[in-house]
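Researcher: Next sequence.
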Amino acid sequence: VCSLSKRSAIGYPLLLGHIHACKADVGIKIFGDEDDEFFYDMVFSLSFLRRLATQMDELQFFALEGQRSHVQKIDNDWVVVHPLQPNSYILRSSIYSCLRLCPPDKVCMLHIEG
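Model: Next structure:
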């Protein structure tokens, strides 16, 4: 379950029922109105999650350089090192990249206007 709101997507039976009725692998609930910001919740079926786990090379990741503190042993003491230059990469992927692996007829959407 991917949720940008503070509400639980799991506790929303209308979305789960809609996903089941459509026999979908991915369910998306969009809520908000014209004056408000839109939020969404996504629910993936277990079969789709298994498929994602076996096709990780199909997902689109991009690397961002970052600075990460670490510890280093200097003169028998552990010292926290705060680097001045990037020393690591963070791999990120958009939630939308996984939708490329799901057939369009296996995605259902529920739009709720507030």
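Model: The two ends are 22 Å apart (CA to CA). Residues 2-113 form one domain.
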